[in-house]
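Deliverable D5.2: sample structural annotation.
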Amino acid sequence: MQANLNIAYNDLVSIVKQLPLSDLKRLNYTINKLKAPTWTDKEYKEHQNIREHINKSRLS
């Protein structure tokens, strides 16, 4: 299940500030344990170049 929410940053900060301490601790723990894959600068630049090439080829 995927939830698409469009919440402004300031609104999100206000919501987080209203959380009780126990929920803040849980949120902090959850955020800190996330280990998302990351790209090096070189990998990201290569990806950008490839995407640009693909986008141009679709226009032809």
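Annotation notes: The helical segments are 9-17, 21-33, 41-59. The chain has a mean pLDDT of 88.
The annotation will be released with the project's public dataset once the embargo ends.
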